[in-house]
Specification:
By secondary structure, the chain is of the alpha/beta class. 32% of the residues lie in helices and 20% in strands. It has nine helices and 15 strands. Strand 8, helix 7 and strand 9 form a beta-alpha-beta unit. Helix 6 crosses helix 7 and helix 8 runs parallel beside helix 9.
């Protein structure tokens, strides 16, 4: 195996790290196919000398030593990943890809047919020609390359994004002026001075989406669940909490409160776990500034940037819309809505896809318990900018369009 000492084998490791298992002498002039198991690598070797390729076996979970070796190999050679076509193999492949793509931006993946677990099974069922076809059908895994090469991937990503968009409820149809494709996966920031109705508006959004069958996960960092749902009780004209049970759509509302174990770093696993049971949902963090992080050695600015980055990863990796609320600095209370209002403790305006500001002039209350509020979309990667005049009915905890 070109690896020297016999003790460096899978059956006689004695606690040592497993190096990469090359099945033939190394050459800088050929591509290398990286397999998970030894039999997979042997199966590919049956193509030689027709195909000028090299094969490498990981012999299981890629170790730290193997990852470093693979980085060196990726610097000099073309790499094709051919790990098992199951959950574990895909996880290993994604982990390797993140590391190797920093060294070589043109990593490919073997085109295993559906229903085939690994290369050895492919050999058994379709013979050498099946492996040849899989090599020919290899595709680039990294998001690099010119547009001509990647146009199909780009179109597929666009299709997936639109497919994962949430519909806009009819009661909030005016949002369609800004989001024509619906509420797409991404990071949405909602800012405003106190008492302009940030929480009330997001609670309204969740209620109305629940009525059309869409689920939401509402994470409260500042107030208890009962205060959030009191808004629903008032708006729906209910007598109390027990009446909520009679609403058939309320099962689409999922809420939980901040406790010490719920840090920004843990939210992705929590949301992913909820979605595995409940199905797709939008995720709301109210508010960003009160959300805790486990890293206590960072300053406020770094914490806010870290929290925003983690939320953007949830939106990207889980393909869901993620909303957060943010405060406007006191120095900006009298300013016209602008993107800099998100900048108080970190440059989060660069990380979010959509920025929305709720603003009002309390000196222009139109009548008792009704406040004129302007919803301004000041950043929008999914559509146009603009504003919409709303009426905030404070006693009913309701917003309606000011027509």
């Amino acid at each position: 195996l070109n690896r020297g000492k016999l003790e460096q084998t899978k059956l006689n490791l004695k606690g040592k790290g497993i190096p990469l298992c090359f099945l033939s002498p190394y050459s800088k002039d050929i591509p290398y196919i990286i397999c998970e198991g030894f039999l997979d690598a042997l199966s590919i070797e049956k193509l030689t000398p027709d195909f000028e390729i090299g094969t490498v076996a990981l012999l299981g979970n890629p170790s730290k030593e193997q990852r470093e070796e693979l980085k060196g190999l990726a610097k000099a050679n073309e790499i094709v990943l051919a790990l098992d076509n199951d959950e574990t193999g895909r996880r290993y492949q994604n982990e390797l890809l993140k590391e190797l793509a920093l060294i070589n931006p043109y990593i490919e993946g073997l085109g295993l047919p559906d229903g085939i677990k690994d290369v050895n099974e492919l050999l058994q069922k379709k013979g050498v020609n099946g492996i040849k076809e899989a090599i020919v059908n290899s595709r680039r895994l990294t998001p690099f390359g010119n547009v001509k090469e990647r146009v199909n991937d780009i179109m597929e990503n666009f299709r997936i994004a639109k497919e994962n968009a949430f519909p806009i409820p009819g009661t909030l149809s005016y949002l369609g002026e800004f989001f024509r494709d619906g509420i797409l996966p991404g990071l949405y920031g909602l800012a405003g001075i106190p008492a302009t109705g940030k929480t009330t508006y997001l609670n309204l959004l969740c209620d109305e989406m629940a009525k059309i069958g869409c689920k939401s996960i509402y994470f409260l960092t500042e107030e208890p669940e009962y205060r959030l749902l009191l808004r629903t009780i008032k708006r729906e004209g209910l007598n109390g909490f027990r009446d909520l049970v009679n609403l058939d759509w309320i099962e689409n509302r999922i809420t939980f409160e901040l406790t010490p174990e719920y840090t920004a770093e843990s939210l992705k696993d929590i949301v992913s776990g909820i979605m595995s049971r409940e199905g797709r949902a939008i995720f709301i963090v109210d508010s960003l500034h009160a959300l805790m992080v486990s890293r206590n050695n960072t300053d406020v600015r770094e914490k806010v940037i870290l929290k925003t980055e983690l939320l953007s990863h949830i939106a990207r990796d889980l393909l869901i819309p993620v909303f957060f609320t943010s405060f406007i600095p006191k120095s900006s209370y009298r300013e016209e809505p602008n993107l800099g209002m998100f900048k108080e403790a970190g440059e989060i305006e660069y990380l979010m896809d959509v920025g929305i500001i709720l603003s009002s002039d309390r000196n222009k209350t139109i009548e008792e318990e009704k406040l004129k509020v302007t919803l301004t979309v000041i950043k929008n990667r999914f559509g146009r900018l603009g504003e919409k005049s709303l009426i905030f009915e404070t006693s009913r905890c309701n917003f309606r369009e000011d027509k």
